Amino acid sequence: MRLSVLDQSVARAGRPHDESIRHTVALAQACEALGYQRFWLSEHHALPTLVGTAPEVLMAAIAARTSRIRIGSAGVMLPHYSPFKVAEQFRVLDALAPGRIDLGVGRAPGSDQRTARLLNPDLGAAANFPQQVLELKAWVNGEDLPPGHPGQGVRALPMAATAPQLWMLGSSGYGAQLAGHYGLPYAFAHFITDGEGCKSALDLYRATFRPGVLERPTTAVCLSALAAETEEQAWHLFRSRERARIDRRSGKFGPLLPPAEAARPYDPGEQAELALLRERAIVGSARQVRDKLLARAAQYEVDELVIVTWAWDPAAQRRSYELLAGAFELA
Domain containing 245: what range? Predict the structure, then answer.
């Protein structure tokens, strides 16, 4: 079982945003030492809960401070940008960390529509996503675009012996089918849907896969997990995330609260959602979380899990990854 990490640079109440960014870099260094396969970074804009807005910049900082772990975006929201410019950025990253760069792309805005318009006034760009992926694939891998294409004969530099690994990210069947069509590796965002649609998307990906960038299907599932020394301590730490999830239901976004301050009265609808959230949550001691993760891996027939861990205390977040690395004997 390969384990990897996705960090979103979560905003924490009472702590400055820049601290979250620096902690992400330090966490990547720690995860490399612990034996994790890859370290991915998300892209969100103008969202008070998440301050990781520029994964490509963070990737450069992490590349300079690590030597083995793969580093990637999870992902670049491609409709915001020019595929050519993204290819250039990631080819530079690959020059800094040869053979260690993952370029995960997604179609979702990663923000509200107003912010999306500020990033790219053409909100219809998402309709061109399949073409954007095709262009990005060509430029990243040094392939030629077909005759008549405006970019035919243009190269994304620097060229090198290695190239970024393109991944398709998604939380529905759309991205799964596109990944299968282009022969790309596919990662499902289980932590966004709480598992809804995960198995059907993976099945669709495998059913539609045809050799392209890869010769055979490659899958990963990104899911939320939190481990602590004891089950009781883990559920206490989980209060921060459950408050954020319940608040999000009513459109309230803010920094992650300390667990001791996270409790508030919940209405009947919120209580029902909270019960379902706790039922699905992968929370507990290291052994309990390991067993739940292995069960998910068997359920979805994947050989790599990407772990997302939210905790108000950065030390608690790091300890969770340490405990899981020990439970899976990564080092």
Answer: 2-327
User: Which CATH number is 37's domain given?
Assistant: 3.20.20.30
What CA–CA distances, in Å, run from 79 to 26, 120, 126, 137? 30, 8, 5, 15
Q: Specify the pLDDT at position 331.
A: 80
**What's the CA gap between 207 and 176, in Å, rounded?**
10
State pLDDT tens for residues 291-307. 999 999 999 999 899 99
The predicted model gives 107-113 an average pLDDT of: 78
Q: Per residue in 252-282, pLDDT tens?
A: 999 999 999 999 999 999 999 999 999 999 9
Number of domain units in the chain = 1
Whether 46 shows a pLDDT value over 70: the answer reads yes
Show the 3-state SS of the chain.
Answer: CEEEEEECCECECCCCHHHHHHHHHHHHHHHHHHCCCEEEECCCCCECCECCCCHHHHHHHHHCCCCCCEEEEEEEEHHHCCHHHHHHHHHHHHHHCCCCEEEEEECCCCCCHHHHHHHCCCHHHHHHHHHHHHHHHHHHHCCCCCCCCCCCCCCCCCCCCCCCEEEEEECCHHHHHHHHHHCCCEEEEHHHHCCCCHHHHHHHHHHHCCCCCCCCCCEEEEEECEEECCHHHHHHHHHHHHHHHHHHHCCCCCCECCHHHCCCCCCHHHHHHHHHHHHHCCEEEHHHHHHHHHHHHHHHCCCEEEEECCCCCHHHHHHHHHHHHHHCCCC
Mean pLDDT over 160-172 rounds to 96
Q: Is the pLDDT reported for residue 109 higher than 80? A: no
- 193, pLDDT greater than 90: yes
Show the tokens assigned to 206: 């495998």
Largest CA distance in the chain: 63
